[in-house]
Amino acid sequence: MAKPPEHDGARMSFDGAMSYVDYLSLDPILGASRPLSDAHDEMLFIIQHQTSELWMRLALHELDAARWALQSGDFPPVFKMLTRVARIFEQLNGAWDVLRTMTPSEYTQFREDLGESSGFQSHQYRLIEYILGNRNTAMMKVHEHRKDLHAMLAQELTQPSLYDVAITHLGAALRLELPDSPLDAPHAPIPAIEDAWAQVYRDPERHWTLYELAEKLVDLEDYFRRWRFNHVTTVERIIGFKRGTGGTSGVKYLRRMLEVELFPELWNVRGQL
């Protein structure tokens, strides 16, 4: 017969002490999953999106810290944090696999209860894009009804993106005057920056730190792209080519997003080598 946990010294009474439920604030977290319909699959839909937002919160925590460390030239923790963000997006990819177990017939049972809410309204996703450098300010309008969220995004636009900081180090290391990207616009590919990265890739031993930084950024975007692709295929599988609940063209809109590159020079440089 198995021995009870207290035999190994486990505490069994938590009256007046912090428990697992207390530390993780599980009561409000688990209580937040409240379906609006009687449809069985709405719980899956809600939890998939709620957990995705929690993972994105961690991604933002890591990306912001990585940017600060990179600004100070502290590269080792940057590499660790960027690796972690890539793995966060691997987790987010796995969530689509669970959501794809829901069929179109099951989704239609509660779709009307979503109203006009849509994933493209996620301020955390937008903030991740802004930190990485895809700064589409037209999307700010979606958040005007929440002044606190709008201000958060506006504040991000006053800072250089993570990729901007990487390019600053690139120029300094190679003693090059590289063009600056506007803080409030998506980063467009710049030939001079591509040529600078080409120098790094042609002599990785000499520029190992920048070489490793470049590959960490590419790895992150690789997982980010997979997340976007899985998003498209999941939506197409469940609703086909209907318009999205938020008014977008649905799959067509998401497919256009697949064309967005966060670090274009790091992808284009491969053609030079």
Task: Reconstruct the topology from this structure.
Blueprint: H1 20-23, H2 26-31, H3 42-71, H4 75-99, H5 104-107, H6 123-132, H7 147-156, H8 162-174, H9 191-202, H10 208-239, H11 251-257, H12 264-268
Summarize the structure.
The chain has 273 residues and is mainly alpha-helical.
Could you walk me through the main structural features you see in this protein, from its secondary elements to its overall organization?
The chain has 273 residues and is mainly alpha-helical. It has one domain (39-271): Methane Monooxygenase Hydroxylase, Chain G, domain 1 (Up-down Bundle), CATH 1.20.58.480. 58% of the residues lie in helices and 0% in strands. It contains twelve helices and no strands. The protein has helices spanning 20-23, 26-31, 42-71, 75-99, 104-107, 123-132, 147-156, 162-174, 191-202, 208-239, 251-257, 264-268. The termini are far apart. The mean pLDDT is 91.
